[in-house]
Amino acid sequence: xxxxxxxxxxxxxxLSESEIxxxxxxxxxxxxxxxxxxxxxxxxxxxxxxxxxxxxxxDIANIIxxxxxxxxxxxxxxxxxxxxxxxxxxxxxxANVTIADTTSSVRISLWNDxxxxxxxxxxxxxxxxxxxxxxxxxxxxELRLGRxxxxxxSDEEITSVKEMxxxxxxxxxxxxxxxxxxEIRAPLLQVFESNVFYEVxxxxxxxxxxxxxxxFVCADHGTVEPDYGLVLSxxxxxxxxxxxxxxxxxxxxxxxxxxxxxxxxLFDRKKRLEAIISxxxxxxxxxxxxxxxxxxxxxxxEFIVSNVKEVDVKQEIEIILxxxxx
Length: 326
Ligand SMILES: [Zn+2]
Known about the structure:
By secondary structure, the protein is α+β, with helices and mostly antiparallel strands.
């Protein structure tokens, strides 16, 4: 499989096979060996402008954000309840399905009518999914169907599955390294007074920006009236070190104790960011689950929060006892 890819890349790009191999190795190193050689080969192909026409099935572990025409087979491990949302401008439904194969798991995010394709499907069933890959707020790949995607039951058997490791180990802020899910316990010392709203497509919630002709355009849904997402950032400090922490949407809502809609209303009334920022309980300890990532611009680590939890005293005692027995 990999050899075929290398041969194809070499013949279509005019580079020698060994040049292709070293490009693949470089790409893997660049991505800290997080993807397989095969996965790296697909990225190299894309960068060289070589279209890999034959639709090859991918192992889920090789899916990375930015890929188009992805074709995977996996066993359903989770189906979320359908969540309905409505804003002043749009309303819709969203549901997530997680599938896993022997290499990893991925979440498929389904919007509005796309949800119909999973009607009657259950956890444990094997499905084939085609679509494109986006990055979720935590930097994980997330499969989307879009216009050309599909989901269908598959006859293939998948005996053992591997779920993406989401174990959240507690650590101190000064022990955080890039990648991997961790949990820290710390108060927020400061919240930045930067814009807390960002524009999203009302259909698919993808972040959108104003184009040259002053329109908001979503790659999938064309020109749209934007809806709003919520983002807060600040500084958490647990006594070992401080770190910039970022909260999106439901996690920002948890900190503020308000829904995005309510926050927007408050802002439209008060016209001051301070009115929103001041809702965050500074100095109160929380447990934050998430992932540290390097901010390329400032070359520093930031912690992207995926869950805000209240400090649970019982659990804290267990953690202390466990540390003693190690
Ligand atoms: Zn959209």
